[in-house]
Structures are given as C-alpha cells and as structure tokens.
Amino acid sequence: MSRYYIDYEEALNLIKKEVFLLESEEVSLESCLFRVLREDLVASFDNPQTEVSAMDGYALSFTSLESGKDIRVVGEGVAGELPLKPLKEGEAIKIFTGAPLPKGADTVVPVEIAQVDQGFLKVKGKVKKGANVRPRGEDYKKGEVILDKGTLITPSEIGIIASLNRKKVKVSKRPKVGVVITGKEVVEPGSPLTSPAQVVNANAYTLIGLIKEAGGEPNYYGIVDDDYGETLKAVDKALKENDLVITTGGISVGDYDFVKEVVKELEVEPLFYKVKVKPGKPVFFGKRGKKYLFGLPGFPVSVFVSFNVFVYPFLRSLQGAKERFRKTFTAFLKEEFRRKKADRLEFVRVSCHFNKEKGVFEVVPLKNQSSGSLSTLKGSVFLMPIKIGIKALPQGSKVEVIKVKPFV
Fold first, then answer.
1. Which of 95, 164, 252, 263 could join 268 via S-S bond, C-beta 3.0 to 4.6 A?
2. What pLDDT score does 257 carry?
3. In the prediction, which pLDDT does 260 show?
4. Is 230 exposed, middle or buried (0-12, 13-18, 19+ CB in 10 A)?
5. In angstroms, rounded to a whole number, what is the distance separating the alpha carbons of residues 19 and 313?
6. Are 25 and 171 in contact (CB under 8 A)?
C-alpha cells in the first residue's frame, strides 16, 4: 500500500524493507575498484614474512654496539635475498631497505650515522635496541581477517588485497540502473539553443556519475518527450533491463507529468509518494516484482539531493555494503541560520572550511538555496539537515553535515 507525504525516517524504513542482496562474482584486481567485498579476506602468511630493515644502514646485534669493541662489516643484504649465514658477535652487514635481517641481528644503524673505515663500522650517534627493524607480522599475521565482507574497495584496499597474494576477489555484482529523463523542454548538451524555454540536460550526467560512485552500472535511455506513449515505452524497457530505474521530472501535478500515470499501467506498486523533505518533496518509490523505480523531481539540485539521501543507501544496501549512507561529520555554524517554514526536513547547502586555529570545521549556509541552481554545488559544498520544527540556529551551533562529495 502506498504511503503519501511521509516523514523521511518512514521513507527510509520502507526502502530498507525492499533491500535484497545481489549475486556475487569474482573479478580481477583491475576490476574491483569501488566494488563491495563479498568475502572475508584472511591472511595466509605473516607480513612481512621475516624481520626486515626499515632503512638503509648496517645490521648487527645490539650487544655488539654495547660492547664497545670493533665491529667488522662482513657482507651486505639486499631486498629479495635471504642472508647466507648468521652474524657473530662483533660482525655487521651493510643492509638495504626491505632486506631480511640475518640471524643474530636485531638492530639497524642508519647509514646517516655510520662510517666504515678499513672494513670496520664506526657509529656516530645513539641507537636503541631494535631500531629500524620491521618485525615479522608487523603489518598482519597469518590467520588474521584483514578485510571484512561488506568493505568498500578503494585504491588502498586493492593494494591490501594484492599484498595478500590474491589476483581475484569475490564482490557484489553491480546493480544495473536505468536513467530516463522526461520533458519536451530538455535538450542534450551541445544542441543548438533556439529558444529560451529550452533546458540543457544536466540531470542524466549528474545521475550517471552518482550511480557509478555508488557502485552501480548506469544505462541511459535518453530524453523522453512529454508524451504518454513514449514515456510508457521507455520506462517499461528500462524496468525489464535493469534492477532499478530512475526517472526525473513528470512526477508532480502538471498536465504533462505522465510518470505517475505510466507506473499504474506498468503495474508498478507504489510504496510511497512525496516525503517531508526539502528539496525533493515529490519523490516516488515503487516496485514491479524485484525491479524498483525512483521517480525524482526535475530540478537538478532536487535530483542530486534525492539521490544522495534515498537512492545512494538503497544501491549500497543491494551490494551488501557495511557503510550504506553517506558519511557525516560535525561542524559549527559560522553564521546564524534562519528559514521561513519549518514543516519539512531541509537539506541545506553549506560551504565548509577547516578553521586551523580552532581545530574545527565551520559551515556557512549558502544564500541561494534554489532547487534549480546546480552551480551552487561546486566546491566544498555539503548538506546540513535541519529537522522539522527548527526555524533558526544561532551562530556557533554544533551541526551535523552530510559529506556528499570530496573536499576540494
């Protein structure tokens, strides 16, 4: 049964109830970036596998240094080769970064404070026992779970997977997401602009980027004119070929807003329509079997915000991600915030910077909060949720901020 004009939390709960886990697949290291891990990765060996030097210098036993006796340099150790014989008291070898320590050595004297004269080592500074040595298993030990199932794979995780001696890894399949843009006024970028009534299509390309960032595989079905038959055909095709379909526009109350009528004919079950949020109130969520549809408003900022607060957690959940929502952080209002109405949860755009003197993030609400002003999202602009019932916040207020993009 469809819910109408509901609270944000209720909308999230309805979305959560529809989550299912996509199938997994095995992919190469080159193909796993921003995918979600579907297995625990356990170390099959210690890393490093033996004690190694952390820098260029001379490996010896600390007791040799303490004795004050002559220390003879008897060889050298390089990365990738095991020492041929153990060191005796009063002996040292020249060693390079990453090279295994010979038995009998427990300390490395940095090359900067070492001098070799006629084959004997002289140390020109103080060195502690065990200095400049990476112990066996310093990074991780055999049997340790290094990456948990549900981890989002970033470039650093790819390096870790490679270090575990894995060429392939099991991840969630990418959710296929169809994008349908509606509106006879919308034209593709690069088109001749022959009328001031035309609107250049930014929504499709914003969504394609957001879908990729959320781990999805976008499929773009182009711009559909404000025509019932064309809209029906495009949405039906997209539903058949994808796990999720996102439409923009055509979901409000205008004479040419056909998406609402189309979903009825296509037997898409409405789960909710309209949410008490700003921007993005006329958002639709429905399903046909295990295929889902989000109908987003047409204004570009509404599309951006609606995707981040509704679609992003759904896509991440389908992939089994541990972290399903955008990350948040705490900041302080640099200026007072006021709004005329407080009947909806508002995602206020704020510019953000780090105050080095205070050691805190500070945010300033943008003067322009128009849903049509996409350029307001440039730079370090994030979303500050303001709860229903709050009309004003004084300067210095502690606030939550949703990190919907990297700091720039």
1. 263
2. 59
3. 76
4. middle
5. 10
6. yes
What are the residues facing 245 on neighbouring strands?
178, 293
Q: Tokens 């049997």 appear where? A: 143
Given this model, what pLDDT does residue 255 score?
46
Give dist(CA 216, CA 175) in Å, integer: 5
User: pLDDT per residue over 209-245, tens digit each?
Assistant: 999 999 999 999 999 988 889 999 999 999 999 999 9
Give me the residues of the chain with pLDDT under 50, please: 255-256
Give Cα separations from 385 to 243, 280, 347, 393 (angstroms). Answer: 29, 13, 4, 12
Domains of the chain listed by start with CATH number: 3-23+173-318 (3.40.980.10), 26-46+144-172 (3.90.105.10), 52-134 (2.170.190.11), 328-402 (2.40.340.10)
The reported pLDDT for the residue numbered 252 is 66
Q: Which two tokens stand for residue 45?
A: 């060996």
Are residues 399 and 383 in contact, defined by beta-carbon separation less than 8 angstroms? no
